[in-house]
Here is the input.
Amino acid sequence: MTMATTTPETTGTAAAWNKPWPSIDHDSEEFWAGLARHELLLWTCRTCGAQYWPKTYCVRHENEPWAANMSWQPSSGRGRLFCYNTHHWAFHPGFKDEVPYYYALVELDEGPLISATVSGRPPRPEDVGSAVRVTYEDHPEHGFTLPHFELIDG
Here is the structure.
């Protein structure tokens, strides 16, 4: 599946997207296609099983040319809240109605750190280290889905 980078000029829809657009390029288009299917993909080494985000070469051994030993594979979508910050003012006008919002680093169960907005209840300092799972914010009219993470209470 090829996902073209979308912009306000290319959507042809009446629904306006007033936030920064995700950067969907050749190297990341399969990741974004996975999100559209509600799968959080990680760049995975077929030789040793190491998983990465963002896309890179495996650091554990020599790699095949053009990363032929690597592929996008589904992750569990689960991890731990590594750290977060609270945004009390919008860095972009498109976020002004969402403040405060919470941006986090999540350490996935597979190892990589990934950053995303926290959905659901706001995190508290004592939540650092708590379990989280990925959620998805679909924008089919614009051609992308955004990942978020929510705390798993209990």
The two ends are 38 Å apart (CA to CA). Helices lie at 8-11, 29-36. Residues 1-14 have pLDDT under 50 and may be disordered.
